[in-house]
Amino acid sequence: MKRTLPPLNALRAFEAAGRLGSFKDAAAELHVTHGAVSQQVRLLEEWLRAPLFERHNRRVVLTPAARAYLAEIGPLFEQLSQATVRYGFPEAVSRRLAVNAPATFTLRWLVPRLDRFRAAHPDVDVSVETSNEPVESQSGAYDVIVRGGPDTFYGYSMRPFLSEERLPVCSPALMQRVPLRTPDDLRRHTLLHTSSLPRLWPDWFAKARIPALQPAAVLTFDHFYLTLQAAIDGAGIAMGPTALVADDLAAGRLVAPFAGPRLPSRSYCTYVPDEKSDDELVAQFRSWLEREGMRPPSNGAV
């Protein structure tokens, strides 16, 4: 007789969310995003044609039918876990690596390089979430956290892996239309700002000894990666972090009109919970980041 089985990934998300009473905690346990858990639960609800949770602002509550359903399937997941440990071949069991990093760093540096790590570790499922929240607020939900530093946090080990400075960058086409020979030529250009980094241009002007310079226009974005994309698209000139625009400079998508001055910037560091500092996979990922940090810029053919 044909078995009637719901989507197993959706069932797994429901079991974790129901057992923990939280989509957020289920996401942390499964090393996926909150949205992924929510999507899988909705998929199961559509398959069952019945709601499973009552949503109340920031919390969820199982419906009576879902509570009874969870009571029956929960032990099955535990039995499956025990059987896998008891009889499974260690080399056949995939590992999950949960990484949390800032969005701009993830988009412009980590993602273009991540295939190299995955090619060397095909049995590892990497889960990346973006955030700028403080390290100490992550509650051990991640194996590796990338933030600026070096800083010291109780319960975490820290290792720097990528240094950078900041300098003006723009598209080659923009520089051709309105040449930039000296910093004073910035008066004829639109300067790109990021609302969370309001001091970048004023600090650079002070270091370039043109503190009173007034540009032709100003364009401000709420995310740094939008500011950098606007520079690539020729909308103006941005203060580019050298580590995150190195590939664009090498590929000719951006140019740096001035050799200096350069603003110092914090390094990128890995922060790992003490209880995971001896984990072999975590150590391999940290070492891989450090090797990537020393690689020359790519021309786009990663």
UniProtKB/TrEMBL annotation:
GO terms for biological process: DNA-templated transcription. Residues 6-63 form the HTH lysR-type domain. InterPro entries: LysR-type_TF_proteobact-type, LysR_HTH_N, LysR_subst-bd, WH-like_DNA-bd_sf, WH_DNA-bd_sf. It comes from the Bacteria. Keywords: DNA-binding, Transcription, Transcription regulation. GO terms for molecular function: DNA-binding transcription factor activity; sequence-specific DNA binding. Belongs to the LysR transcriptional regulatory family. This is Transcriptional regulator, LysR family.
